[in-house]
């Protein structure tokens, strides 16, 4: 659940989501759920002419399983905190496995 | 699930549920009709005032789809189809029911056979769709102000012509993709969508 919590901290930030079919959608992160399905508001599509089906769309719900990357604004990510949280989670997992 | 709303109170904590159960048992001992099938306690019965907190369902698939209900959506499917319809029902897997669905086919500009610099599109009436969640790539709410205009750079074309061009393009793309996958495979790549093509 670490990345779910992490994405929750990025809500209301502008991100770019790159899908496995190469579409890149830029928008304000509005919501995320346990599958990392993502909801974006006020979207803008990079290379819009290639993806005309998105021209009249203002907000999207993206299924988590089709996301390749999420480009994040670097100044809203606390790398140190994320690192610590990751170590803690890994330690917890290791503890459970034993 | 459909009756949940963001403003609903979260379910009571476990301690309170036990109270409910005791309450129900008490009723049954009193010889209530329909024994063995406990009646659900009335929602207002014995519920103490809720502490103010974020509803637990706030960050769920259901909550994300809730405010899209009864809106006109564009749904992109894994096989490349684009459906436009009104979202009437859904569940936690993003299985969807769409009403008054139209399938929209696009032929991008510069496709072989299409002479122009502008693309073409056409709509086919399809009716009601029940889409299994796994086939959904993304769904977007349509801005009704822009809905009546053709997508920029595209013109409405004759259905049969557009269908024919789209079919040709699909065959072409499939061939290209296959070549690419074969080449990548020879180099030892095993990408995320080598098994299937996402459109």
UniProtKB/TrEMBL annotation, chain A:
Belongs to the snRNP Sm proteins family. GO terms for biological process: mRNA splicing, via spliceosome. One of its GO terms (cellular component) is U6 snRNP. Keywords: mRNA processing, mRNA splicing, Nucleus, Ribonucleoprotein, RNA-binding, Spliceosome. Pfam families: LSM (PF01423). InterPro entries: LSM_dom_sf (IPR010920), Sm (IPR047575), Sm_dom_euk/arc (IPR001163), U6_snRNA_Lsm2 (IPR016654). It is found in: Nucleus. It comes from the Eukaryota. Component of LSm protein complexes, which are involved in RNA processing and may function in a chaperone-like manner. This is LSM complex subunit LSm2. GO terms for molecular function: RNA binding. Residues 2-76 form the Sm domain.
From TrEMBL, chain B:
The keyword Endoplasmic reticulum does not apply. It comes from the Eukaryota. InterPro entries: Lsm1 (IPR034104), LSM_dom_sf (IPR010920), PTHR15588 (IPR044642), Sm (IPR047575), Sm_dom_euk/arc (IPR001163). Keywords: Cytoplasm, mRNA processing, mRNA splicing, Phosphoprotein, Ribonucleoprotein, RNA-binding. GO terms for molecular function: mRNA binding. Gene3D superfamilies: 2.30.30.100. CDD domains: LSm1. Residues 38-52 have a biased composition (Pro residues). Residues 1-53 are annotated as: Disordered. Residues 16-30 have a biased composition (Low complexity). Residues 60-145 form the Sm domain. It is found in: Cytoplasm; Cytoplasm, P-body. GO terms for biological process: deadenylation-dependent decapping of nuclear-transcribed mRNA; mRNA processing; RNA splicing. GO terms for cellular component: Lsm1-7-Pat1 complex; P-body; ribonucleoprotein complex. Signal peptide: none annotated. Pfam families: LSM. Interacts with SLBP; interaction with SLBP occurs when histone mRNA is being rapidly degraded during the S phase. LSm subunits form a heteromer with a donut shape. Plays a role in the degradation of histone mRNAs, the only eukaryotic mRNAs that are not polyadenylated. Probably also part of an LSm subunits-containing complex involved in the general process of mRNA degradation. Belongs to the snRNP Sm proteins family. This is U6 snRNA-associated Sm-like protein LSm1. The lineage of its organism: Eukaryota, Fungi, Dikarya, Ascomycota, Pezizomycotina.
